[in-house]
Design goal:
With 555 residues, the protein is α+β, with helices and mostly antiparallel strands. Among the domains are: 163 residues, 2-Layer Sandwich (Sulfite Reductase Hemoprotein, domain 1); 77 residues, Sulfite Reductase Hemoprotein, domain 2, CATH 3.90.480; 140 residues, Sulfite Reductase Hemoprotein, domain 1, CATH 3.30.413. The protein is built from 18 helices and 19 strands. A five-stranded antiparallel sheet has the order 1-2-5-4-12. Strand 7 and strand 8 form a beta hairpin. Helix 5 packs antiparallel against helix 12 and helix 15 runs parallel beside helix 16. The longest helix is centred in the first third of the chain and has 16 residues. The radius of gyration is 23 Å and the shape is globular.
Length: 555
């Protein structure tokens, strides 16, 4: 048996390990298992194109290993200069495309090992980083991407930026290895927050605004919801803890859990509270079984009252009662939005979050012409900020000229839905997602329209495994890969992101997914009350009742 990940971290000397030897002294396209685990902390995933695996084996060729690299962006924000530099890297050392993620980051796929130092150096030069894009540390801190000219959204974004910087690992290994190409032996540094072995598992923090939960804040280890005062400034933060959606098929005690409210605090006490929560997970989280190492299991086993008391003890902050969380219907922030008399932002829909040939060409022209700031959304789309309304119309014309659809012309069902990468590059994928999702969603939308529901949103998401990278089990309809060509179907998630979906059917073949849910859509169209969403209707009727009803009509 190989080393545990805990042993690898403990022996790594703050994430150095044998990465230098694997990167600069080995001629292999891959790295050792120890280095593979360490390099995740640098946002670097060793991957293999699974489409090529069999053919290469038949030809007697070694596997073709490359890296996916995740660029961590504070709240998904990019300048025009940064965007164009990342776009160029997709050609220089990547596979000619890149992907916007559901956590407001950017992923570049297909990078050979010897391209990593060049990538990091280029990103460092434009003040971006892949450090903490993955690993057992705080990941990309999320917040609402919509600007509001100094209002509560911009205030929250500034706080999220500062918190994200504060929570980055302090190790110098990243720059030593990938910018300077150095092997460092005498290490004199500390990780004051994370310690010698970092956290037991990945850690996620997200911000939301009262009334707008576009970031699905209850899915995070720490959720922070901003409540405004009468002047539109931040008055209080409600703190949530213990969310997480990933689980393992067949391991009954693993499950998706939504974060629970600890209470509310003044904005100036946020850092102490967040640090206290992280150190509790650092000291008390499960390091014996990674399947149960996320903080959600610690909060669940302790109970909210005990966990809150320990946060108060460590932080010195006494929580006030939690503010009520009232979120309105989901918003994707797409289309044109005026912010003041002179400018606003335009949200562009990016199919599957994949920025490829036509989208890249269109965005190159748009960004070079109008020089906007860009924001990656939690739905894998892009906002362009700093446009006049007339400029936004020109942008949409450019977008159309490349054969792409402006968001304003798209049905709501398509605008609010997501799929993860899955095959061929994700090593965890059990089934397809991104490549098959457009056809599945088109079938759903066709039925939705036929039922006279085309003006109503329907949140549909698909993941290739139960790690839930696009939060499928919070969707109104979620398809979760359970094996080659098979999916579990979940229904009834709250469209406001406040209720989990329930498992409806197991191991349904891809071709049968839409036929299986079509009766539910039909019954909803017949039975729902005016203004009631599909997810809320499912919750009212009950999944067991719907299962029985479906059994009656199909038996």
């Amino acid at each position: 048996m190989g080393k545990s990940i805990e042993d690898i971290k403990a022996e790594s000397h703050h994430l150095r390990g044998h990465v230098y030897e694997d990167m600069f002294e080995s001629g292999d396209s891959r790295v050792s298992e120890d280095s593979r685990q360490i390099m995740k902390f640098f946002g670097m995933y060793l991957q293999e194109d699974r489409d090529e695996r069999h053919a290469r084996k038949v030809q007697g060729l070694d596997p073709n290993f490359t890296f996916m690299v995740r660029i961590a962006l504070f709240g998904g924000r990019l300048t025009a200069h940064q965007y164009l530099a990342i776009d160029a890297l997709a050609d220089e050392i990547g596979a000619g495309h890149f992907r916007l993620t559901s956590r407001q980051a950017i992923q570049i796929h297909g990078i050979a090992k010897d391209g990593l130092p060049h990538l990091v150096s280029r990103l460092q030069a434009i003040d971006t980083t892949t450090l903490a894009g993955c690993g057992d540390v705080e990941r990309n801190v999320m917040c609402c991407p919509a600007p509001d000219a100094g209002g509560i959204r911009d205030q929250v974004a500034a706080i999220a930026d500062r918190l994200a910087c504060h929570l980055k690992p302090k190790t110098g290994a990243y720059l030593e290895l990938f910018v300077n190409g150095q092997k460092v032996h005498d290490i004199q540094e500390e990780e004051p927050l994370y310690g010698e072995t970092y956290l037991p598992r990945k850690f996620k923090t997200g911000f939301a605004i009262a009334g707008d939960n576009c970031t699905d804040v209850l899915s995070d280890d720490i959720g922070v919801v901003a409540h405004p005062d009468k002047h539109g400034n931040i008055a209080r933060f409600t703190i949530l803890a213990g969310g997480g959606l990933g689980h393992s098929h067949g391991v009954s005690k693993t499950r998706a859990i939504l974060a629970k409210p600890l209470g509310s605090i003044r904005p100036d006490r946020l850092v102490e509270v967040v640090e206290a929560i992280i150190t509790i997970q650092r000291d008390q989280g499960n390091r014996e079984d990674r399947r149960f190492a996320r903080m959600k299991y610690l909060v669940d086993s302790w109970g909210v009252d005990l966990f809150r008391a320990e946060v108060e003890r460590r932080s010195g902050v006494i929580f006030e009662p939690a503010e009520a969380l009232n979120f309105s219907a989901p918003t994707d922030h797409l289309g044109w939005h005026a912010v003041n008399e002179d400018q606003g932002y335009l949200g562009l829909f990016i199919p599957g979050g994949r920025v490829q040939k036509q989208g890249r060409l269109a965005l190159q022209e748009i960004v070079k012409t109008f020089n906007p700031d860009l924001r990656v959304t939690a739905q894998q789309n892009l906002l362009l900020w700093g446009l006049s309304e007339s400029a936004s119309r020109e942008v949409n014309e450019i977008w159309r000229g490349y054969g792409l659809k402006p968001a304003e012309t798209m049905p709501p069902t398509l605008r609010v839905s997501m799929a993860c990468v899955a095959l061929p590059t994700c090593g965890l994928a059990l089934a397809e997602a991104e490549r098959v999702f457009p056809a599945v969603l088109e079938q759903v939308d066709r039925i939705w329209t036929k039922l006279g529901l085309s003006a109503e949103p329907l949140v549909v998401r698909m993941t290739g495994c139960p790690n839930n990278c696009v939060r499928s089990e919070m969707a109104e309809i979620g398809f979760v890969g359970s094996g080659p060509g098979k999916y579990h179907i979940y229904v009834g998630g709250g469209p406001q992101g406040t209720r989990l979906a329930a498992k409806f059917r197991e191991r349904v073949p891809l071709a049968a997914l839409v036929p299986t849910i079509e009766p539910l859509l039909t019954w909803y169209a017949q039975d729902h009350q005016r203004g009631q969403s599909f997810g809320d209707w499912v919750a009212q009727v009950g999944v067991e009742s719907l299962q029985e009803r479906l059994q009656e009509v199909t038996s």
